[in-house]
Design goal:
Blueprint (H helix, E strand, L loop, with lengths): L4 E4 L4 H9 L3 E2 L15 H9 L27 H7 L7 E3 L16 E2 L6 H4 L1 H9 L16 E3 L3 H26 L35 H18 L15 H16 L8 H15 L14 E5 L9 E3 L2 H11 L9 E5 L12 E12 L2 E6 L3 E4 L11 H4 L3 H4 L17 E3 H10 L5 H20 L12 E9 L5 E8 L8 H23 L8 E6 L1
Parallel strand pairs: 1-2, 1-3, 3-4
Antiparallel strand pairs: 5-8, 6-7, 6-8, 9-10, 9-11, 9-13, 10-15, 11-12, 13-14
Helix pairs in contact: 6-7, 6-8, 6-9, 7-9
Length: 541
């Protein structure tokens, strides 16, 4: 009579138990014929449910383990109740697949945990495009929170990437010249230090022999290129034509090859004192125009990602232009869609903990797209790589923090002995580390505001493309990493983020975020004064 009937697709024992505790009755999802469909449409829609993706949640993979005594998908007590509601329509639907529901057939009173049209920001390609093309009135500058990104399958994007790669190499030569003077940690050894830690030099493969020094004109050419880029950024080149027209492809090939020698073969760069001063001054001017100049490093390393996959599948890194473009050629094969792959500038100077790379999973909840209403979860968790960070060793265990990848190397040799065994920290542990490392105010004044700004900007960029259905809501998992200055950088946003426990930390947090999600979408909807748990409303148009 109260229409408290719910259906769940996938392994969500916490959602089931929470709803049952509220007096709801479950209708088995397999009994639903394309939720909301009329009887005459049942036969046509049953096939969709039979072809349900076996992998479950979008970025969880096979991590759904260990819910303890409450992990049964279907309790005996629910069977007679299910029979009672066999001919009833569920009013609350929770699915692991965005396409498990025909949104057009839903009735107004039915709630579902997905929106249609979210591909605009939950795929790497979609996020890349929409952040670049967001309207100017949004004010947020994506270059301040989203590493530069290009679709390899689109001709204009491919050319823009080539130009960016070349300019980054030229800037890297200036940085190497400044590092030669000892002004900043250099390419040969990058010390990493945290609270209570000793300096940990990055491993450097021994050179095969002394590499000859780079020719003097190399640095002069890089200086000239960077001056022209600065003129372009400051619009002083309007009457001079395109500055890149004076540099041939052969010139660029020579500059890139010399840069490869500098980074990979330890070729020597021998700048004069005057050149070092010029490089330092020019980099300072560029820093004011290029927010990513510091974190982009000097290796010119880029990460190549499939545009619509998760859990780190298919990701590779390269610092050679020809390797990236070779992959780009494969992207436009007849069996693949153009733009299916993206290339993104790698954050070469990340904040490290115990000499190890990490990222942070942050939850956002959208309860309406018109007006756009965004909630931010106060608790989050950190995911570590299993081996020390190194730009000279590009193994996945050092660079990809996904749980599905790192679980293969959790007990590998070389990991820091103080890393947690399950490679997971709570955000409270992270905050404690920051305090001990001398960054006591970073969490409240830089990290949290930065994550909120990035999340809101990313969601706003796709607002016109998402179907703003009343009654729908959706929980998103955004992944961030941080520069050495603690500035957050958005990597991607996942729909159906994994809510299965892979550690003691995630067991507690995932159960809490599901509980609080129900508080927002069920209780707060009826009573705006009720508690929303750890969710804070951070944006409402």
């Amino acid at each position: 009579q109260d229409k408290k009937i719910f259906s769940v697709q996938g392994s969500y024992p916490v959602i089931r138990n929470l709803l049952r505790a509220r007096g709801w009755v479950e209708k088995k999802f397999s009994n639903i014929i394309r939720v909301g469909a009329r009887l005459g449409q049942q036969q046509d829609t049953q096939k969709l449910l039979e072809e349900e993706d076996e992998e479950g949640e979008e970025d969880s993979g096979d991590e759904q383990v260990g819910w303890g005594l409450h992990s049964s998908l279907w309790s005996p007590l629910s069977l007679p109740q299910s029979s009672m509601v066999r001919d009833k329509m569920p009013t609350f639907i929770w699915t692991s697949q965005c396409n498990a529901v025909n949104y057009r057939l839903l009735q107004g009173h039915q709630m579902v945990n997905h929106f249609a049209g979210i591909e605009a920001f939950i795929t790497k390609a979609g996020l890349c495009v929409n952040l670049q093309n967001q309207p100017g009135f949004h004010q947020a500058d994506p270059t301040t929170f989203f590493p530069r990104c290009y679709q390899l399958g689109a001709k204009d994007e491919r050319q823009a990437f080539i130009e960016d790669f070349r300019l980054t190499a030229a800037r890297s030569l200036l940085k190497l010249a400044v590092e030669k003077a000892g002004d900043m940690p250099g390419v040969m050894e990058r010390p990493v230090k945290g609270a209570g830690e000793s300096h940990v030099p990055q491993p450097m493969p021994p050179p095969a022999g002394p590499a000859p020094p780079s020719p003097p004109e190399l640095l002069e050419g890089a200086l000239q290129i960077c001056r022209m880029q600065l003129d372009s950024l400051e619009h002083r080149d309007i009457d001079r034509g395109s500055p890149m027209l004076h540099i041939t492809d052969a010139d660029w090939d020579w500059i890139l090859q010399e840069h490869y020698r500098m980074v990979q073969e330890q070729a020597r760069l021998e700048p004069s004192v005057h050149q070092q001063e010029q490089c330092r001054a020019l980099l300072q001017q560029l820093q004011a125009r290029l927010p990513q100049l510091h974190v982009e490093g000097d290796h010119n390393l880029w990460i190549i990602k499939p545009g619509a996959k998760s859990r780190g599948r298919g990701i590779t890194c390269s610092s050679r232009l020809e390797e990236v473009l070779e992959l780009a050629g494969k992207c436009v094969a007849p069996s693949l869609q153009p733009g299916q792959w993206v290339v993104q500038k790698y954050v070469e100077r990340p904040l490290l903990i115990l000499g190890t790379k990490f990222d942070l999973r942050q939850w956002f909840l959208v309860t309406d797209w018109n007006p756009l209403t965004i909630w931010f979860y106060r608790d989050s968790y950190v995911r570590f790589c299993s081996r020390p960070f190194s730009l000279h060793h590009l193994h996945r265990s050092r660079h990809l923090c996904n749980v599905a990848i790192q679980k293969q190397w959790r007990l590998a040799r070389g990991r820091h002995p103080k890393l947690p065994r399950d490679l997971i920290w709570s955000s409270q542990q992270f905050q404690l580390y920051l305090q001990r490392a001398g960054h006591a105010e970073a969490w409240e004044k830089l990290i949290v505001p930065g994550m909120k700004e990035a999340g809101v900007a990313a969601l706003r960029s796709a607002q016109e493309l998402v179907e703003a259905r009343k009654g729908s809501f959706e929980l998103y998992g955004a992944d961030f990493m941080f520069g050495e200055d603690c500035q957050p950088w958005l990597l991607e946003i996942n729909a159906s983020p994994t809510l299965a426990p892979c550690s003691a930390v995630t067991r507690r947090l995932c159960a809490a975020v599901m509980r609080d999600t129900l508080c927002v979408v069920l209780d707060h909807r009826e009573n705006p004064c009720c508690s929303t748990g750890a969710f804070d409303l951070i944006y409402k148009e």
